[in-house]
Amino acid sequence: QVQLVESGGGLVQPGGSLRLSCAASEMIFSRYTMNWYRQAPGKQRELVAGISSGGTTNYADSVKGRFTVSRDNAKNTVYLQMNSLKPEDTAVYYCNARLSLISTWGQGTQVTVSS
Q: What is the rounded distance in angstroms from the CA atom of residue 30 to the CA atom of residue 59?
């Protein structure tokens, strides 16, 4: 089963940028749909962005135009470039890999947007 390790979170000021990475152990990474979710304190986990095996992307309305999801199948890695960050983007960000009935989660990385 695929294992996921996120990195790149941290503290950033409003208007700043961060790039999250999610490295997968699975050799057939290219077949998975990869998603980024986030969960803020007291709120439900929500889908932020996703990228299919074919490269089709989708975004939550709240991040469209600010976040970009991409993947490098040669490195078994998916990225989330986050620009123009807002305090409301503060959350734990989780990487998710999905293939048919298989759904695997990473451990999460904290993103805090604050001055």
A: 20
